[in-house]
Amino acid sequence: MSSVHFTETEDKLAVIDVLYRFAAGIDLRDGALLGSTFTEDAISDFRPAAAKAGFEYPVLQGRETIVSALSDSLQHFDTTHSVTNPRVCIDGDKATLEAIVEAQHVPRDDHSRHYLMKNRYDVELIRHDEAWLIQRATIDNVWRDGDPTVLTGV
């Protein structure tokens, strides 16, 4: 339990900020920033979005595993992630966040190719001390555009 009490608006903004930090951590290739968004035992499930894009991606469990896997799988890309339409529901020290995240992937050595994904994020967070952290994130794809082989490295 947190000893600091925030207003509902402050909590909602803090929850949304976690997803902004997540996106910035990926785009800036900043493992520490990315890692600061997850609980130690967090789960990241990209399977729904990956299946629609035509490839398999495992469920990732644990902060270090998630940061390492995302850093490794995206190391050959320039990416931009844009977060929109966040909806937050707070229940004590737990929160849910629904948002749309647009993710543009461009091979670092060939900017003439791209793969753009518009994804729906369903995120469960917990309050840890004075911060909100992602406990589970499930990512599903709404639509996509471009060359799907960009993501598979073909």
UniProtKB/TrEMBL annotation:
This is SnoaL-like domain-containing protein. InterPro entries: NTF2-like_dom_sf (IPR032710), SnoaL-like (IPR037401). Residues 8-137 form the SnoaL-like domain. Gene3D superfamilies: 3.10.450.50. It comes from Salinicola socius.
